[in-house]
Write a structure and sequence with these properties.
This protein is of the alpha+beta class. The chain is built from twelve helices and 25 strands. The strands form eight sheets. Strands 15, 18, 21, 22, 23, 24 and 25 form a seven-stranded mixed β-sheet that branches.
């Protein structure tokens, strides 16, 4: 086996639902490690979940092309594996120099690595395929450019020497704050170093660099920025000769700090992964399906007592039993009585489903996800309890698979765990109803003609008014409430 054919590159696979990209959360191997077939090598977060990807070949890790934190398109090479490390070393000119620090490989070394024949046809953007800018896609990035490079136009009014900065640019300074004209003060410092009688000059590194490029002495300027800092505009005014003389600075004891606000006190959080998908889905649903929300307040004292008796049974002592379990059971029984609620709007037709993939909204560190229990209506109460426990634990551990979040037909969101009474939830795309289950509180309630303390909750049902009219939505919500008010009587009456 030649050195070239020994090296197999592993592309980021499509993890389901036609996802276009994923973020590398962590590498589970490093360069030089020996790995086995199907051994997890990298943890990737897609728009739906964090998943571990197994190796397609056994061998030795030769190169890792993208560090943790990179967002990679599906089909992009992420790792190279030597499938026959026992055959001896491979020349550096053939394979490149592997390094965990991801050095930039030469075009020749990248071009020498071939895609395994089993990888299929070459597509645009993949190894050997066409790429933007007249280049050829290679193992990492692209090979030598065959077209002329284009330069970005210089900004008007900036001298040539200001554009001859190094390749690594400093962060852009915030826009200058309107202020009084800049005043040049007699210097007592060291020129561009920026010290004066009142102490060091306040200026950001990009401003200091601009002053050096334009030959402006920062110590001679009176800044117009926050806390007297020198801004880019101050430097440019001084360079153009529009600055006027100023009195020497004197040290002044600070009094009260003025209120300040701006970009330096803001946090910018990239929208990606689960949060990006959630935003897209909620926006699409909110402006596509006409939402209607109804509310119902229910005395669930009998339901809570039934749960207590259930927990006391020997076969249920190791089972997680919560009010959400009875809510899920109530929803499943109500769907049997009103199957139109469990449907999807498909343009020219309504698809009514005989199975219920019951979604349970879960808040995780990565954002809101809605995994679902497949065909939940066929499960017994004990099986439903086990499935819900497994669903919640998997979500909290960040191990929910994309398949577990696909195909939902009806959803419950338990806002009560946050101490909230109810809400107006937005429908997940493709579903016609979602139930918000609020906090269970002890409240005064008229029971048998007398005001007594009772366990009370509020339900909120949002539904797609194209499918579910007011009567159907009201009956569905009423049946859920009736079950929670007296679950034992409802079971006897409905089953």
């Amino acid at each position: 086996m030649s050195g070239v054919s020994r090296i197999k590159e592993f592309n980021l696979p499509d993890l389901g639902e036609g996802l276009a990209e994923g973020e590398i959360l962590a590498w589970l191997v490093k360069v030089g490690d020996m790995i086995e077939l199907n051994q997890p090598i990298v943890e990737v977060e897609t728009a739906k979940a964090a998943v571990e990807i197994p190796a397609k070949w056994a061998g030795q890790v030769r190169s890792i092309f993208h560090p943790a934190g990179s967002t990679i398109e599906v089909g992009t090479p992420i790792i190279a594996i030597d499938t026959d490390p026992g055959a001896g070393p491979i020349e550096e000119s053939t394979t490149g120099t592997p390094s965990a620090d991801l050095p930039t490989p030469s075009a020749a070394s990248l071009a020498a690595v071939e895609v395994a024949p089993s990888e299929g046809a070459v597509e645009p953007g993949l190894i050997g395929g066409p790429a933007p800018g007249g280049r050829t896609a290679v193992l990492v990035g692209y090979g030598p450019r065959t077209t002329a490079a284009k330069r970005r136009p210089r900004k008007a009014g900036v001298p040539a020497q200001a554009t001859a900065a190094p390749a690594t640019r400093a962060p852009a300074a915030p826009a200058p704050v309107p202020a009084a004209p800049v005043v040049v003060a007699p210097t007592t410092g060291n020129g561009h170093g920026g010290t004066r009688a009142g102490g060091p000059v306040l200026a950001k590194p990009p401003v200091r660099k601009l002053a050096r490029d334009l030959g402006v002495d920062l110590a001679a300027l009176t800044g117009s920025g926050p806390l007297g800092s020198v801004t880019r505009e101050d430097v440019r005014q001084a360079a153009s000769g529009t600055a006027t003389a100023a009195e020497p600075l004197t040290a002044v004891a600070p009094t009260t700090t003025a209120a300040s606000f701006g970009a330096d006190r803001e946090q910018r959080i990239p929208v990606k992964g689960v949060r990006k998908l959630t935003a897209e889905n909620m926006s699409r649903s909110a402006f596509t399906a006409p939402h209607v929300t109804e509310f119902m307040t229910v005395d669930v004292t009998r339901a809570t007592k039934a749960l207590d008796r259930l927990r006391g049974r020997r076969e249920w002592r190791d089972v997680r039993v919560s009010p959400l379990l009875l809510v899920a059971k109530a929803v499943l029984l109500a769907v049997r009585r009103h199957p139109m609620v469990n449907s999807t709007w498909a343009g020219d037709e309504i698809v009514v489903k005989d199975y219920v993939n019951l979604g349970i909204a879960a808040a995780t560190e990565r954002g809101l996800i809605v995994p679902n229990i497949k065909d939940a209506g066929r499960l017994s109460l004990r099986e439903l309890a086990d499935a819900m426990t497994d669903l919640v634990q998997t979500a909290k551990a960040g191990r929910t698979s994309p398949a577990s979040m696909s195909g939902g037909t009806l959803t419950i969101t338990n806002v009560g765990v946050f101490g909230v009474d109810t809400g107006t939830p937005i429908l997940p795309p493709g579903e016609s109803a979602i139930l918000a289950f609020g906090a269970v509180r002890e409240m005064p309630w008229v029971h048998k003609g007398k005001v007594r303390p009772r366990q009370v909750t509020t339900l909120g049902l949002s539904f797609d008014h194209r499918i579910i009219d007011g009567e159907l939505g009201s009956k569905f919500l009423r049946d859920i409430g009736d079950f929670l008010a007296d679950p034992e009587a409802a079971l006897l009456a409905w089953t």
